């Protein structure tokens, strides 16, 4: 019997690699298909994230004089700011038809915004109507969060009401979330003598808060729409953009409109109650 060829049972190298290549190609095609499907379903949000990331990346190249056109159909425009915006030229902001501003004071039970005091002082000096807001963390006790806000914010007659920002989704029991939100609102209303404003974004509000806090004025964040889908009777302020430019601020800032005229906004302010002093900083009772 003739000897077997030494190459008869050995597959060519190309033949051995071919199944691996086919598997890789299938995986790439599947990833592209799934990625494309996800993008089509969430393209508005993803595009907005990409724009904000680019704005943050290019922030150092901005002049602080960039300007986003005011939203047509509204006469009262405002912003909300935190330490993220850096040092703000408030007189320049006021010259560009910004009539009101909500300034971050605190977050959770311990975090104080490091720029609150300066923003509060300089915005009021520039003639901008001011209010302060607290970013609510569902994992922390509502009373502790109310105590922190009350220690920091010296609201006085003529200021806009305090605001509770409720949008953090890291909670397990919506009933507990609502209970602690209600506690913060109740304690802060008793402390300052004025009903707070509730802030949330459209999807979070519809899913977790709608129907439970209807006695409180609503500040609604809803982007990429011509108008909020909630009827105007449900909200008083609409945050229509989180990527606007206002001269005096280097980088993007949230843009808002008040649904009424300036006199209606003024009517929201904490009223003067005679010769009494501003609310004293301390624990919310």
TrEMBL record:
<keyword id="KW-0812">Transmembrane</keyword>
<protein>
    <recommendedName>
        <fullName>Lysozyme</fullName>
        <ecNumber>3.2.1.17</ecNumber>
    </recommendedName>
</protein>
<dbReference type="InterPro" id="IPR017853">
    <property type="entry name" value="GH"/>
</dbReference>
<feature type="transmembrane region" description="Helical">
    <location>
        <begin position="20"/>
        <end position="40"/>
    </location>
</feature>
<dbReference type="Pfam" id="PF01183">
    <property type="entry name" value="Glyco_hydro_25"/>
</dbReference>
<keyword id="KW-1133">Transmembrane helix</keyword>
<dbReference type="InterPro" id="IPR008270">
    <property type="entry name" value="Glyco_hydro_25_AS"/>
</dbReference>
<keyword id="KW-0378">Hydrolase</keyword>
<comment type="similarity">
    <text>Belongs to the glycosyl hydrolase 25 family.</text>
</comment>
<keyword id="KW-0326">Glycosidase</keyword>
<keyword id="KW-0472">Membrane</keyword>
<dbReference type="InterPro" id="IPR018077">
    <property type="entry name" value="Glyco_hydro_fam25_subgr"/>
</dbReference>
<dbReference type="InterPro" id="IPR002053">
    <property type="entry name" value="Glyco_hydro_25"/>
</dbReference>
